Amino acid sequence: MPTDERLYSYCAELMGSPILLKLYSHDEALASRIFQLIKRYEDLLTVNRAQSQVMSINHAAGQHPVTVSLPVYALIKCAKAASMAQDSAFNLAIGPLVKLWRIGFQGHRVPSAAEIAERLPLTRPQDVILDDEACSVFLAQAGMEIDLGAIAKGYIADRVRDSLRQQGVSDALINLGGNVHTLGNWSVGLKKPFAPGDALIGSIEVASQSVVTSGVYERYFEQDGKRWHHILDPRSGYPLDNELDSVTIISANSLDGDIWTTLIYGLGVVKGCAALRHHEDIEAIFVTKNRDVILSSQRNFRFSLLDDSYRLTG
Length: 314
Ligand code: ADP
Ligand code: MG
Ligand code: MG
What we know:
The protein is α+β, with helices and mostly antiparallel strands and 314 residues long. 29% of the residues lie in helices and 28% in strands. The chain has two domains: 8-36 and 152-313, ApbE-like domains (T-fold, Roll), CATH 3.10.520.10; 53-139, T-fold (Orthogonal Bundle), CATH 1.10.3980.10. A hairpin with a 4-residue loop joins strand 4 and strand 5 (136-139). The model has no long low-confidence stretch (mean pLDDT 94). Bound molecules: adenosine-5'-diphosphate (ADP) and magnesium ion (MG) (2 copies).
C-alpha cells in the first residue's frame, strides 16, 4: 500500500445498500463514474422495482421469450449452470419463494406449508429456457420469477474492479453492502454475527481478491421463537438451517464468492470443505454458531483472530 498518499472514501446508497469506495487519490469524477456504473447495472438486474431487464423476463413468464442485453444474458446463463449443478442450494428461479417470505422487506411472515408447496414447482431452474442466438430468456411457466439477489452485487463488484483497472487504478477497495472487492493490499474485517455496530471476529488480509460474506444475521425476522433468515433452501422452500452463522469466500471474482456462499450454506462445513478441495482458488472462512472459525485453506489470504470468545481451527 502506498504510504505517501492519503486514503479517500466515497459513499453512496445504491441497490438498497451502503456503497463505499476507497482510493489513494482524491478523484471525485472517478468515484462518480463508478457509482454511475453500479446504477446502470442495478437498473438492468433488480427485481425490487417494477421495471428492469430481469423484470421484463419475469413479466413474460409462461408467455414469450424476452431478448436481453449480452451481460444480463451471460449472467443468467452462468446462474442457471450453478443452479443445475448436483446438490446445489443456489437457484436463480427462487423468486416465487423469496416474494412469498418477504424476508428483509415489509410484510415478512412464515408462510403456510400449503403456500410453499404451491410455489416449489415454479422454481425449477430447468424451466429457465435460454437461447444463445436470440440472447433471450423464457420462463416456461406462468408465475416463475428469476431472482439474482444473491449474485448481482458480486457480478457488479467484478465490473467495478475491471473498470478501475482499465482506468489505471492499482489500489482500491469497493464495498457493495458486504461484497468487498480489492485492488492491491487490504485488510477486511470479518463481522461478528448478531453483535451491535462494527464488532469484528477477525481481520482478513488480501491482495486483489474478493471477500464476500453471507450471514444469517444479515436479514432475518423472528416468529414462533425461531429466527427466519434470507437464504432459502430450494428443496424445502424454508430458510437453510445448519451450524453456520456466516461464511466468507475469498476468491479472484466476486461472482464466484456470491455463488459459493450460497452453495456452502447448502452444504455445511464438512461437505463444504470437501467441495472446496476441487476448487483451489475458492477459499472459505466458516463461522459456526458454536463460535468456531474454520479456514478451508489459506493460500490467498491471512486471517487474524481478534475476538477470543471464538476458536480458530483448520
Ligand atoms: P445479501 O448480499 O443481500 O445479504 P445474499 O448474498 O446473502 O444477500 O443472498 C440472499 C438473497 O439471495 C436473498 O435475499 C434472495 O433474493 C436470494 N436467495 C435466497 N435464497 C436463494 C437461493 N437458494 N439461491 C439463490 N438466491 C437465493
Ligand atoms: Mg450478497
Ligand atoms: Mg449477504
